[in-house]
Design a protein that fits this description.
Pfam families: adh_short_C2. InterPro entries: KR_dom, NAD(P)-bd_dom_sf, SDR_fam. Keywords: Oxidoreductase. There is one protein chain. By secondary structure, the chain is α/β, with parallel strands linked by helices. The chain contains eight helices and seven strands, in the order E-H-E-H-E-H-E-H-E-H-E-H-H-H-E. It has a seven-stranded parallel β-sheet, sandwiched between helices. The longest helix has 25 residues. The protein is globular. The structure holds NADPH dihydro-nicotinamide-adenine-dinucleotide phosphate. NADPH dihydro-nicotinamide-adenine-dinucleotide phosphate (NDP) binds next to helix 1, strand 2, helix 4 and helix 6.
Length: 246
């Protein structure tokens, strides 16, 4: 059932990890949510079911954020289902470890395609669609401040995202739409754990003064701040949410 004053958010990459936590948090804050995902229909449907179980409204929409037609469909389906759009969170992302070598170009292309081209498309469509009071929130990464070996493609993609955020905030002059990025430190999700030994995980976790990994909900709270009325004067910023790692 539609609530009075219901607002609407698209969250990309919301079948799992940080995007899922953002979708649940924004739903708890009274948003209807479009749950975007790449291929994991079962997990996306679980996010939707969890939102609906607490009385919220949600819709799962499959679509590759790097595909312009899929992004167009994502926004159209949201308008058809919910009739308006207030907030767009682009959490869809991939991380592939690859040293900067001539034979790792494929990892570079794939990472840039999802993380940077995808951000361009989602942010551009959000800019076209949102009205006054709208919020655009991208996901960067605090690993930019560390320059670890093997993170070249990933860091390049996220440095690009941070650039887009600042330029778009300026391009939207006069429209009362904020554009920001949240840049998490290491967070306990599948993206972070993939390919790491327990020892590597422990070493990275120990880098923050809190000596632990972040939890998806801790990132979602920062996103919700930017999406809510208390974040209205924050614009063109990169909010590092990492327990003090960098
Ligand atoms: P996960 O791997 O847990 O989840 C990734 C999500 O993105 C899934 O929902 C996946 O869908 C979706 N996705 C992947 N590729 C695409 C695509 N091309 N189009 C649409 N959806 C896609 O990742 P996290 O939650 O950890 O990461 C979320 C964001 O946070 C990313 O941008 C990441 O770079 C950033 N980040 C993560 C950190 C961490 O330590 N975890 C640290 C800093 C930043 P499906 O389930 O269908 O595959």
């Amino acid at each position: 059932m539609r609530q009075a004053n219901e607002r609407v958010a698209i969250v990309t990459g919301a079948s799992r990890g940080i995007g899922r936590a953002v979708a649940l948090k924004l739903a708890a804050d009274g948003f209807a949510i479009t749950v975007n995902y790449a291929g994991n229909t079962e997990r996306a449907n679980e996010t939707v079911a969890e939102i609906e179980a607490t009385g919220g409204r949600a819709l799962a929409v499959q679509g590759d954020v790097a595909d312009a037609a899929a992004v167009e469909h994502l926004f159209t389906a949201t308008r058809e289902a919910f009739g308006r759009l207030d907030v767009v969170v682009n959490s869809a992302g991939v991380m592939q470890m690859a040293n900067i070598t001539t034979d790792n170009l494929e990892s570079f292309d794939r990472t840039l395609s999802t993380n940077l081209r995808g951000s361009w498309l989602v942010m551009a469509k959000a800019a076209e669609t949102l009205g006054e009071g709208g919020r655009i929130i991208a996901l960067s990464s605090s690993v930019l401040g560390k320059s670890f070996p093997g993170y070249g493609a990933y860091i390049a993609s996220k440095a690009g995202v941070e650039g887009l955020v600042k330029v778009l905030a300026n391009e939207l002059r006069g429209r009362e739409i904020t554009v920001n990025a949240v840049a998490p430190g290491p967070v306990a999700t599948e993206l972070f754990f993939a390919g790491k030994s327990d020892e590597q995980v422990a070493k990275i976790a120990a880098m923050s003064p809190f000596e632990r990994l972040g939890q998806p909900e801790e990132i979602a709270d920062a996103v919700a701040f930017l999406a809510g009325s208390q974040g209205r004067w924050v614009n063109g910023q990169i909010l590092r949410v990492n327990g003090g790692m960098v």
